[in-house]
Amino acid sequence: MEAGTVAGGRVACDLLLVFGDAAAVLQGCSLYARCPAPGQKNVVTTQGREDPNQSTGIVVQGGKVAVAADLASLVANVSSYLGRPWKRYSCAVFAQTKMEALVHPRGWLEWNATFALDTLYYAEYMNRVCCKPI
């Protein structure tokens, strides 16, 4: 993924929706979690910044995280998360985003127990779940 801004796009995917190491801004986009393979979880972002001085990260702003039709009847049985670290300085932000009630209450998923928990940057700002503030 190269640096850039996507406005008003639609992304539907199982397992990993937005993956890579770039400066990526998704504004007003709809991100749809699909039904993953049995035993797998959905992860909306997996960011891979390796150097704390890089200006890379994923920002999802003003859009929505929703359930795709193939996941709708199974959403209670599938865990979905906002993100997980891929590299040590992973960076992801969700701001002013509407989220259907599919996101696990923990919000974020660890990778290999405690990997990068002391160096990553994850943030949430003024998001809404089912049209109610988080």
TrEMBL record:
Keyword vocabulary terms for this entry: Aspartyl esterase, Hydrolase
Keyword Hydrolase: yes
Keyword Hydrolase recorded: yes
Gene3D superfamilies in the cross-refs: Single-stranded right-handed beta-helix, Pectin lyase-like
InterPro entries: Pectin_lyas_fold, Pectin_lyase_fold/virulence, Pectinesterase_cat
Coiled coil regions, renumbered to chain: none
GO biological process: cell wall modification; pectin catabolic process
SUPFAM superfamilies: Pectin lyase-like
Pathway assigned in UniProt: Glycan metabolism; pectin degradation; 2-dehydro-3-deoxy-D-gluconate from pectin: step 1/5
All residue ranges annotated as the Pectinesterase catalytic domain in the record: 17-128
GO MF annotations in UniProt: pectinesterase activity
Protein name: Putative pectinesterase/pectinesterase inhibitor 54
Gene source species: Zea mays
